[in-house]
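TA notes, week 10

Several of you asked for a full example with nothing omitted. So below is the full record: structure tokens for the whole chain, then the designed sequence directly under it. When grading your own attempts, check the secondary structure regions first.
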């Protein structure tokens, strides 16, 4: 299972300082990373290797981020975060590959019959 834009949540958001958030706001990753590397009048330049280190420490692949490929970036980040969770809990984590226990499949005979009965009344 790969998360889409609608699934993008707090677990995928590394903490940013107020200043950094203002620098990167509203542009593609390739553009804001270039801004951070170049620096501005009030903000010193950040060496590319150092910036890559910051990104990697948040389980972000710098190359995927620079490529502006949101889906590939999200799939990779999801896999990295899931691996970290599995290491923390010491077992494989549910990744959405099978229905969870108690999840209604909606296609069993009793459910179909119940829907027909309710619709008829």
């Amino acid at each position: 299972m790969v998360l889409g834009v609608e699934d993008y949540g707090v677990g995928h958001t590394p903490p940013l300082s107020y200043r950094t958030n203002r620098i990167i706001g509203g542009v593609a990753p390739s553009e804001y990373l270039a801004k951070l590397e170049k620096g501005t009048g009030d903000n010193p330049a950040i060496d590319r290797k150092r910036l890559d280190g910051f990104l990697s420490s948040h389980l972000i692949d710098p190359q995927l981020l620079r490529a502006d490929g949101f889906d590939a970036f999200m799939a990779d980040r999801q896999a990295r975060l899931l691996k970290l969770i599995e290491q923390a809990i010491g077992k494989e984590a549910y990744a959405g590959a099978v229905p969870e226990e108690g999840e209604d499949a909606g296609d069993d005979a009793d459910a179909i019959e119940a829907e027909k009965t309710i619709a008829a009344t």
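The chain has one domain: 5-120. Use that as a sanity check on your answer.
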